[in-house]
Amino acid sequence: MVVNKVGRRSRFNRTPTADIGRAKRQVAVAPKVALWPRVLEEPQWADSGLAALGTARRIADLQANRAKVPDWQITQRKIKYRRLGRMFEVKGFDPHNDYVMIKVERAVDGDNIRARRCFVCGDQPTTGVGEHVFPKWLQTRFGLFDERLTLINGTFIPYRSLTVPCCAECNTGFLSRIETEVQEIVERGSVETSADRLSVARWMAKILVGILVKETALLLDRKDPTLGNIVTADFISELVHCQLLLQSARKPARFGALHGTFPFTLYWYRIDGLENGFDLSTDIVGQSIAMRVGKLGLAFVNDGGLQMIHGEKGPYGLEGVTVLPHQFGELAARVHTKASLRDATHFYLNSETPTHLTIEQQDVRPFTSTTLAGGEMQVFQPWDSWKFSVRAAQVTRLEESVFMDTITGREMTTLTNLL
Ligand SMILES: [Zn+2]
Predict the structure, then answer these.
(1) How far, in Å, is the centroid of ligand 1 from the Cα of 131?
(2) I want to staple 299 with a disulfide (CB 3.0 to 4.6 A). Which of 30, 290, 317, 373 is the partner?
């Protein structure tokens, strides 16, 4: 069994006994489901702290495990993989190529990104255009060939030109399987099963990673190359968990998540709009992406499922409800804004054998150790109505005044008919 961890170091350094005691108290008083506030005069997202984050037992398990897990460096980890490959003595098993976690490490390696190697395995790419970040079926279905996407630096790129280096094996293998699954879901216009949910999340993760990898190859300012590229190659390592989620499609995977079935946030909506309507928005800081594809609206956050703490059906509990295109835009803006306010990450203990992958969340690690009034740790910074209204105006292309009364400073919504 191979074990590694994904997750940033935090300043979470309280003593284990205090933790367990606190967790027990919090679990005892925590509501089963944190409700999304429905009264608009109040902040849209009241902050719940660590209360809903798992049982005291899990935290106690973690405390016991943490001491046992060595803090491996990447090189040490690779040696370990090689040794394990021999240990398993699986016929035809190649530890270099058959461990998903090794492919993920190679994919997010800054040197491999700079060398324009395959964006999901880090191997030599096949010559040609590479992988379309927005697959051809999607471009055809929604007439995107001549449409353009706005990049972080404010410039535009046609959807058809959004390609990233990819090898034939990845392209025709697991990536192609995901496309087939998602195409069916998009045509149906609903996300029915947890298998659907997982396929969509992997697909959204691919697009998020793809756009950013593309941006590592584009100049921030074409008139001044000294400014470098839009996104630095080393930034891609921030997306290691996105990559792992995407690449978990390579072999049978098991997920252990604290806030739901899977370690990510995903909400979907039925759209009362055009059959071929399309819209896209992302938030790089929050690692969120929202897309309207005809009759289906999707919002994904690579946050380990942290937004699910505030209600598994998303803002105002509206998941699965039929909304107008601009209402979906507002919901997407709420998810993006919340994602950008995330103040915690997760600690993972992932493991892999030649035939199986296990992605296991252990606990939540706050970034800033801010204690809330109830004594809980803050996992989201306080809701910011102004930030939301600016974002909602961008996404919906409506006036900011639709989302914020500038005189009273009161937040407003286009979802009134649904609340
Ligand atoms: Zn590849």
Answers:
(1) 10
(2) 290
Q: How many domains does the chain have?
A: 2
Ligand 1 centroid distance, CA of 120 (Å):
5
Q: Is 209 left (phi over 0), alpha (psi -120 to 50) or beta?
A: alpha
One-letter identity of residue 143: G
Q: How far is the CA of 247 from the centre of ligand 1 (A)?
A: 11
* Per-position DSSP letters for 283-296, written without gaps between them: ETTTTEEEEEETTE
C-alpha 180 to ligand 1 mean position (Å): 18
Pairing assessment for the beta strands 265-271 and 253-256 based on DSSP bridges: unpaired
Q: Work out the average pLDDT over 297-309.
A: 95
Ligand 1 centroid to 24 CA: how many Å?
45
Q: How far is the CA of 98 from the centre of ligand 1 (A)?
A: 12
Whether this prediction's pTM lies above 0.85 is answered by: no
Partnered with residue 359 across adjacent β-strands are 255
Kindly state whether residue 354 falls inside one of the protein's structural domains: no
Residue 63 covered by a domain: yes
What's the pLDDT tens digit per position in 312-327? 899 999 999 999 999 9
